[in-house]
Amino acid sequence: MDFKEIESKFQPTEDSKCAESENGMVATAFPDATLAGVEMLNKAGRKRSGCSLCCCFSS
Amino acid sequence: MDAACAAALALSVCEPQSSGIGGQTMMLISSGEKVLAIDGSSRAPSLAHVSGIYKDDRSYGYRATTVPSTPATLWYVNKHYGQLSWEKVLEPAIRLAEAGYTITPLQHRLQKQELENFDKVESGSGKRYFLKDGVPYTPGERFYQPDLAKMLRILASKGIEEFYQGTIAKRIDADMRENGGLLRYDDLAFIPWPIVRKPLRRKFRGLFVYCMPPPGAGRSLLFTLMMINMIKSKHLNRDEFDRALLLVEIFRNTLLERSDRPFDPDYYPQVAGENMLKRTYVRKCIHKITRKTQIHIPIRGTEDELAGETTHLSVIDNSGMAVSLTQSIEKVYGSKAAAAGLGFLYNNYLSDYEYKIFSHPFYLRPNAVPWATVAPTLIFRNKEEIWLAVGSPGSERIFSSIAQFLIHVVDEHQPIDEAMRAPRLHCSLGGRVSLEAERFPDELVTFFQEKGYRIDKREPFSFYLGAIHAVLKKHNGSGFQGVAEVRRDGTAGGY
């Protein structure tokens, strides 16, 4: 299977039906629900970074 | 996990036609180490005996509902696999219920379509909550749900026990008694906790496909993919008409297998659930079809063409967590009856049980689970690396929509946006071919007609033919790609 071919032809759209991101992705059947998911990805991501920072400091 | 929970709860508010607090939720979760299937089936109430349920009771009104399991399921996965608190993941849903959201043209159309059915509920509760003075909301109007917001606030502050054993349970009990419903406080008090099951796994063109085991319908998708896997992709793509005929016969064969091999993992004795996924058996089935692509299942109108609606969401984050979640209240706007003072719709899952064959694993009996068509799916490049989270709503069209999407991506190397937009078709067991007619050549419709199939012409980008919501974790380079079905209202987004 040619993963490169499949992934490289992807076209994000302005209406957010098709989107790309760097840190995580949510796809749902309603824009507000997608936003709710993204909000949590953000919060959980920050919490994880916070935890790893704590670990760095404690070690 | 938190993103999936928050999005699922938000969908319960802003996509009430497809799922809600009164429904059920199933999902596949990958933590990066292992994949789990979360079976959040609802349960039949104690008073739901076959002798007491008339045919009309199964589709509309208070008597059609099972014990809602979505709140218990989402709470459970948040508690066990989430990082954020239950209050935090409920915040967006509460906000949406209070501040309202904008009614879409699709929601307006569905409200119009269901007007007559809303009227079938004597109390008019669903109509009162979800229509505007008895008529559909106009696209662009704001829709507020203050009662639902209040209830969600109670869930956030007092916890899930309030829904099943506290004041909310008491209000549901009173509402049911007043309106002739079957659900009682005692049914809720059992709490329909989800069951963590081992997902089904099969290979498709070298990829590892994980799918929902029974009572979900992952077997249907895997059976279809296994049959396709046994045909070389260059043969599958040789002739458009032969390929369409092959697909249609594969779909019918899958639906036949499903109806012939009902399997409830908690009900004994039964034929082993995975028999239909044995390679030797699948090979026999595909040989029967491809020996000479012919129609070997009689074409006739049957009652096998299931109607129902659902919603699906997919999430992958950069920690490697992936969720593929499908939830529903069964039909569009469920039972059309809403919980008084609580603002959510009861489901009509009592239509998804067997009512005639006593020995059938999904024969209606107290505490039994309904027979689901959902197939949330996770696909790995190898045993460890997640590549795709995908799923679709659409009742018995779920497996055929996902299968077509995967054929476009895996066999034709289409990007997921193109594969999601591609024209779709489906065929019922009874031989009714539903297709986005204008997007296929006229000759194909004639071809099917001449073979004897019944034709069901649907509009381009039809709501009826499933809705792919998929997230891909890039293998080449870093980052993610997401698609939300153009046939519905959704979006994809990340950070």
Q: What does this 3D model show about the protein?
A:
The complex is a heterodimer of chains A (59) and B (495). Chain A has 59 residues and is an alpha+beta fold. Chain A has a domain at 27-59. Helix content of chain A is 58%, strand content 15%. Chain A has 2 helices and 2 strands; from the N terminus they run αββα. Chain A has helices at 3-8, 31-58; strands spanning 18-21, 24-28. By secondary structure, chain B is of the alpha+beta class. Chain B folds into 2 domains: 2-196 and 310-352, no CATH class; 200-305 and 378-484, Gamma-glutamyltranspeptidase, large (L) subunit, C-terminal domain (Serum Albumin, Chain A, Domain 1, Orthogonal Bundle). Chain B has helices spanning 2-14, 70-81, 86-99, 105-119, 125-130, 146-158, 161-165, 167-178, 185-189, 218-229, 233-236, 240-260, 279-290, 398-411, 416-421, 442-451, and strands at 24-30, 35-40, 101-102, 142-143, 195-197, 200-204, 207-211, 309-317, 322-330, 377-380, 386-391, 425-427, 432-436, 454-458, 469-473, 480-484, 491-494. In chain B, the strands form 4 sheets. Chain B has a 6-stranded antiparallel sheet. Chain B has a 5-stranded antiparallel sheet with strand order 5-2-1-9-8, with helices on one face. In chain B, strand 10 and strand 11 (386-391) form a beta hairpin. In chain B, helix 3 (86-99) runs antiparallel to helix 6. The radius of gyration of chain B is 22 Å and the shape is globular. The interface between A and B is large, with 46 and 73 residues. Strand 2 of chain A pairs antiparallel with strand 17 of chain B.
Name some characteristics of this structure:
heterodimer; A: 59 residues; alpha+beta; 2 strands; flat; disordered C terminus; B: 495 residues; Serum Albumin, Chain A, Domain 1; 2 domains; six-stranded antiparallel beta sheet; five-stranded antiparallel beta sheet; 16 helices; 17 strands
